[in-house]
Amino acid sequence: MLNWMSPHEKNMNKMFQEFSILIRRPALEVMDILKRLNYNYPLTRFLLYGEMNAGKKFTMTHIMHYCRSQNWVLLTVPWANEWNCKRLDVSFNHHKESLFDLPVHSKILLEDFLLKNMSLIKEFTTSTTYEFSEHEASEQGIPLTDLISFGITRMKFANDVVGALLKELQILANNDKIKLLVTIRGINSFWRKTGQKKEKVQEIHAQQLTLVNQFMELLQSDTKNAVAMCSTESWVNDVTDRKSYLPTELMGKEGVDFLEPFLPIEVPKYGNAELQSVMDYYIDRRWIQAPEAKTLVGRAQIKFLSGHNPYQLYRVCVPL
Question: How much is the pTM?
């Protein structure tokens, strides 16, 4: 799960020699719903939203950890906006000329999926034959892990293998073989223009990307035994489009209508008790060492300067 941690978060884990998550109400609320959910109904969608750096990513991490402990299969998009912004390779889709493949991004997704789920999917085989070109095909009945490995080693077809994998996961879930958690961080990027470039194409919208199309189809499927946990992220939008952190502002009417019906879960800034708990942890891990910062007055100043924002709390404590 550490693949979506930022550099400073990875450094803190290394310095503290452990990976810790603050137990917060939004995560507990989602997990309580998951315990009571009827999985015979079609895919349930959660949408996490909140102010910038309020803790949505770690709330999602906590929920993923819970689902992994229950032997769920995890399909994770750590940062959907990377498909829009990180220019690695773009190619025309073999089957639909109007779509664009992202082979490198697809390969990374397949590698991450295999790493997270190898022990859970190693016994499953493919339900049908998948043809990727005139000369390349994947036969029915081969191990699912072999299909994924094909996409990793033959990167040209990685995007098509992602599509095949999503179909196989839906079949497995519908046959009560697995429970599936689909996690997409920054889903509002699905309704943005991209910075991807291809010859003779001046502008590529996110929904012209094959990966985005594949995940949008999955989100609107009637797959049972499946849950989608998405988040909106202000970072995705231009500065002029960040007037509010509410989903209606970040996704627009089209995005909200697409996800409906969904369960909105707000992730607020730290409450007083949460902020004090984190400061106690920082002191215990010797992240805060200045004697003045450990006093009641010092804590009050840190609280004021951070504005109860988790990331700003970290920033304020860096020189202490």
Answer: 0.92
